[in-house]
Structures are given as C-alpha cells and as structure tokens.
Amino acid sequence: MVEQRPYFDPEIETMPRAEIEARQLVALKRIIENAYANAGLVRKKWNEAGVKPSDINSLSDFSRLAPFITKDDIRAFRAETGDPFGGILCTPMSELRSITGSSGTTGDPTLLARRDLHAPLTDSRFDRAFWDLGVRPGDIAVTIIPTIRGSAIGPLLHFGLTPLCVDHSPAEIGRLVELSRIHRPTVLISLSTPLLMGLEQFEIDTGIDMAEVFSSYKAMVWGGEPLGPRGRGLTERWKMNIIEIVSLGDATITLEAANHTGAYAWEDEVFVEHIDPETGEPAPDGTLGELVATPLHNMVDPLIRFRSEDLVWLTRERCPSGRTHARFRVKGRTGDQVVVAGKQLLPVNIWPTIESQPESKAGLFQIVRPKVAEDFLRLRVGYAGDADLPSLEGRLKGEIQRQLGVDSRLELVPNDELLKQGPPHKIPRIVKL
User: What rounded mean pLDDT belongs to the chain?
Assistant: First the structure.
C-alpha cells in the first residue's frame, strides 16, 4: 500500500519561520568564514567593502553589509588570475572528485565541483519534491539529462527510484515511448522544446496516442527554459502534469510544488534574498525582484550573495500545502528585456507570435539585441521543412505587428542550425548584434 503521509520530512518542511532563520544564521556564519578564508574572489570583494565575517551577527547584517557577487565578477577574476573557478573554489583541486557545469546558455558555464561523490545523495530536497508529487520509493523514473551527467541520477537513487536513462536526442523518442509503455514510470526528468518537437512528429508519423503512452506519469519535469504557449497546449492535450525544475540562483536546483503555487526555495539549504534590481534594496514579498542566493552547506564552491539575474515573484507566506519555506516563480532575466519603439518586451511576449505559423511552430527564436535603441524588433527565427521563406517572413511580421504593435526585421534559419547555438535542450534567447 502506498504511504499517503503529506510530507517527506515534516519537521523541516513545516518548520516555523523563526526556527528557519535561527538555523540559517548558524549555517551562514560557517559558510562565509570558510569562503572568506579560502575563496579568493570572496575575500577580495569583502576586503574592498571593508567587511569581515565577524561583522555578521544577524541575517540583516548579512543583507546590509555583505557585497554582492555577479557573473561579471567571476569572469573578471578568472581573466585576471587564470583560475577556472573564478575565485569561488574553497578546496584544493587535488581533493576534488567531480567537476561538472551548468549549461552556459546565457554566458560561461558555472563550474560545479564536488569533493565527495556521494554529496548529491546527502540532502533531501528531491526526496521532499518527489514525495509531494506522489512519487514513491520503488517507482521507476525516466531521466533525460543533457548537460550534467553522472551524479544527476544520485537523487533518484537516494529516494529509492529505479532510473531508466535516455539520451537527450530526437532519435531516442521511439525508445522513450517503448520504455514508457513497458515499465510505466511515474516521473520523467526532464522534457525540453526539442524533445516536445520530436514527440509531436512521432505522433504524426505513427498515430500513437501520446496521452496513453504517458498515462502512468504523475509528473513530467520541464527544465531549461519556459514552456511556450503552443508547447503547453501539446502537454495539456497529452494530459501531462508539467512540473518546472528551476535554478535557485545557481546555488542549487529545485522543483515546482505539486499544487503549482511556485517552486520551493528550501531555506534550510539556501539563504534567499529578493531585491530591487536597480537599487539592490529588499523587494516586498509578493512582488517581482531579482533573486539573490547563498548556499548554506556547500563548503566546496559556494557563491556568496550571488546575484542570479533571474527576475522572480517570491513569497514567504505559508503554502496551501502547509509548507513554510519561500516559493518563487521565474518571470525572466534582468538582461532579457528589450525596448522597441518605447515598448518593453521579454521573450515570453514574443513566443506566441513565432509559434503562430506552421513552419516556425517549434518556437525557436532569438532576440538580436542592437548596440543602440531601434524602432523595430530584430529576431532570428527557426523554421522546419522546405518553407516558402518570403511568405513565412511576411506572415510572421504581420503577427508580430498584430500582437505586439511593433515592426520587425527577421533572419530565418533552419531549426537544426539554430539548435547548434546552445546545448541540446535550449538556445540562448538573447544574442548581441
């Protein structure tokens, strides 16, 4: 019989906020002392700000005194010193047992080092998330991890799931369908735009009912980039329960709550701040702000007060599920907004216009950011098949004008060529002219 208790770890998941903050302070002091002593960039930034770890005696002290670290800081330190970790690593290289990295879609990959190969198995973030989704030990999980391998199956094993590993490739679609029908998994990690394109084409070619194929799944995890409107329509037709997996300020990753009220920012693992991106001051709960994160237990390569550039809605109100940790939704990135003819546009605003035409329904596009403001929107748009390009360009321009009220200049590129611009599961949505 499947156990139905509501929480995997009720003590942590429903901890009163005062206790969350008390635990955070103890962990935070330990992590910043370690980083100041061993991480060159952290020590440099703190010394420039005239701050020492001994100055931090409360969470408010940290938010008031500690300097931010940005990706540009890391790049500059790397260029100056030749340190591939950009002044973040706190452990001798000889002690490392694993080095992976983020996808690097929006810039240089963030290196992720591990001193203990079992480190991914020691926290319960995914245990809590799987339990929340109704997944249970003994279930089968499909894992499709395009950029971080090896330790990626650690959380599945820790929870007691049996992983079925599938390569992130449209050529694997038939195998994914077959494995799903034979083994009836309960969770898949993770879908992407190229895989969704492949599934749709496989359905057209074979006539197989995708809703039946995926009927055993309690959750289909989506990651890497937003799910476009047309893609969401496909997943709804196939009766998929889409759960987003998102970065928590490059400190860790986390999953959306089963009740779809946001992703949990597990505050026993990460100290989370939510700031006005212009002033750096705290943003009110329930509003849009930039996510700033500090890991509380990563003694190997911690990013201390890292400005993620992610624009998020965040609240610390108790979740309807009873969990007390903060929840957030990623709305975009601080560098993703473009201003065209006085209108502020994000990729999410442009998505429906690109998906509106059959040849570009995959929603593959890039905003080409000019060096100076322009009165028209520059886009690089992917298309499939043997398209009539003048006709497609005219229809897309018309749809952009109708939906967004701006003129556009388009460069049409085959989907396969555009996909080469990034890792297998996503492309950079903003490129510079």
Answer: 89
Return the C-alpha torsion angle 263, 264, 269, 271, nearest 10. 80
| pLDDT at res. 2 | 55
Residues near 106 by Cβ (< 8 Å), separated by ≥ 6? 309, 333, 335, 428, 430
**Residue 66, φ and ψ in degrees, nearest 5:** -70, 135
Question: Taking residues 98-116, what's their average pLDDT?
Answer: 58
28: CB partners within 8 A, 6+ apart: 56, 59, 62, 271, 294, 296
Which domains are assigned to the chain? 10-117+248-333 (3.40.50.12780), 121-247 (3.40.50.12780), 338-432 (3.30.300.30)
Q: Distance between CA 88 and CA 38 in Å, rounded? A: 8
Q: What band does 110 get if pLDDT is binned at 50, 70 and 90?
A: low
Map residue 42 onto helix, strand or coil. helix
Kindly give the residue spans of alpha helices, DSSP state H, lying in 277-368: 347-355
Report percent pLDDT > 90 for the chain. Answer: 67
The residue whose two tokens read 């998906």 is: 355
- pLDDT of residue 106 exceeding 80: no
CA nearest to 195, candidates 157, 246, 240: 240
CA dist 136 and 134 (Å) reads: 6
Closest CA to 313 of 288, 280, 284, 347: 288
pTM of the model: 0.84
Q: Taking CA 261 as the corner, what is the angle to CA 140 and CA 295, rounded to the nearest 5 degrees? A: 75
pLDDT for the residue numbered 328: 97
Query: Which residues partner with 431 through β-bridges?
Result: 368
- The encoded tokens of residue 45 equal 């930034």
pLDDT digits (tens, 9 = 90+) for 258-290: 999 999 999 999 999 999 998 999 999 999 999
The strand pairing partners of 369, in sequence order, are 432
The DSSP bridge pattern shows strands 338-340 and 270-275 to be unpaired
